[in-house]
Design a protein that fits this description.
Elements: E1 16-17, E2 26-31, E3 37-42, E4 46-55, E5 58-68, E6 73-78, E7 84-89, E8 93-98, E9 106-110, E10 115-121, E11 126-131, E12 135-139, E13 148-151, E14 156-162, E15 165-170, E16 174-179, E17 186-191, E18 198-203, E19 209-214, E20 218-223, E21 233-236, E22 239-240, E23 243-244, E24 247-252, E25 259-263, E26 268-272, E27 277-281, E28 292-294, E29 301-305, E30 324-328, H1 332-335
Antiparallel strand pairs: 1-30, 2-3, 3-4, 4-5, 6-7, 7-8, 8-9, 10-11, 11-12, 12-13, 14-15, 15-16, 16-17, 18-19, 19-20, 20-21, 22-23, 24-25, 25-26, 26-27, 28-29, 29-30
């Protein structure tokens, strides 16, 4: 067994293994908003769906469907109906998959370079896609031309939506904030509080700010209101000794509003930004974690363990590297925030 992330076991946290995982590295994970259906996109050009069945403290998975792109798939997202999946990737195409009806794939639209992110925005009934062609495009599913194309300062690496807030992280450490009530205008552009390349962003559940993670094992907590700027801070994570690993994924818990980081060190950690505490550090897998997701009620946390390309194609051996998707059942102590210390101030 190739241990790309170092010594150790593939599944030190005794998580439940998803059956029939992708045959190449996993690029995104997302749960249906309506039920325990998990979708993964992969470098093997496929988008797969499983039904996740939770029975007490046991979890099983049943493969439900698979569809293909012509090239590696980089992103996936559900429509709020829980019946439709969107995906995009290196074929520059945004696709729609009517999963519930077993319908045929539909090309929603196209970019001029790979599609890195997709997100459905139910409040405005539009799909947004972000690409390495330095644009965001908004799609009305009834037409194949974008209803709006938004120029970005550089390639889109990551985006997060919590209506009306959308934050886009691009190359060169740009963070562009949009108010989706007026999506054709940038609300604010800031330079990342982190010194190195942005990997992931996550909007606060209350839309008052966002988290940003970088390749340098650090997370920034940023509030949009200048009056709240004293609450902004950065912290180190996903480091061991002198080894520094990328923060690849940030997810807020849908109920407790704590969050989890996952990194190229193969670990995932639960945090409470309000009390500035780490709630739980999980054991390291022997491969990086490139992506992760909570289900709609936060009772299941899915994470991938596979090669994440940070050492380039020459260090990837598809014959020996196995790709895993694991399901972890978060305990309350891991995800429930701790009361803030009383500082005596009102």
């Amino acid at each position: 067994m190739s241990t790309l992330g170092g010594a150790g076991t593939p599944n030190p946290n005794k998580s439940f293994e998803v059956v029939q995982p992708p045959t190449d590295s996993i690029s995104s994970l997302c749960f249906s908003p309506k039920g325990n259906y998990l979708v993964a996109s992969s470098w093997d050009n496929q988008v797969r769906c499983w039904e996740v069945q939770k029975n007490g403290q046991n979890v099983g998975s049943v493969p439900k469907a698979v569809m293909s792109h012509d090239k590696p798939v980089l992103c996936s997202a559900w429509k709020d109906d829980g019946a439709t999946v969107f995906s995009g990737g290196c074929d520059n195409i945004v696709k729609m998959w009517p999963l519930a009806s077993g319908g045929q794939l539909v090309n929603v639209g196209a970019h001029d370079a790979p599609v890195k992110e997709v997100a459905w925005i139910p409040e405005i009934n539009l799909l947004v896609s972000g690409s390495w062609d330095k644009t965001l495009r908004y799609w009305d599913l009834r037409q194949q031309t974008p209803v709006h194309t938004q120029q970005l300062p550089d390639r889109c690496y990551t985006l997060t939506v919590k209506h009306p807030l959308m934050v886009v992280g691009t190359a060169d450490r740009n963070l562009i904030v949009f108010n989706l009530q007026n999506p054709q205008t940038e609300f604010k552009r800031i330079s990342s509080p982190l010194k190195y390349q942005t990997r992931c962003v996550a909007a606060f559940p209350d839309q008052q700010g966002f988290l940003v993670g970088s390749i340098e094992g650090r997370v920034g907590v940023h509030h949009l209101d200048e009056a709240q700027s004293s609450k902004n801070f950065t912290f180190k994570c996903h480091r061991e000794g002198n080894d520094i690993y990328s923060v690849n994924s940030l997810n807020f818990h849908p109920v407790h509003h704590t969050f989890v980081t996952a990194g190229s060190d193969g670990a995932f950690n639960f945090w409470d930004k309000d009390s500035k505490q780490r709630l739980k550090a999980m054991a390291r897998c022997n491969q990086p974690i490139p992506c992760s997701a909570f289900n709609s009620d936060g009772s299941i946390y899915a994470y991938a363990a596979c090669y994440d390309w940070h050492k380039g194609a020459e260090n990837h051996n598809p014959q020996t590297a196995k790709n895993f998707i694991f399901l972890h059942l978060p305990q309350e102590a891991e995800v429930k925030g701790k009361p803030r210390l009383n500082t005596g101030r009102k």
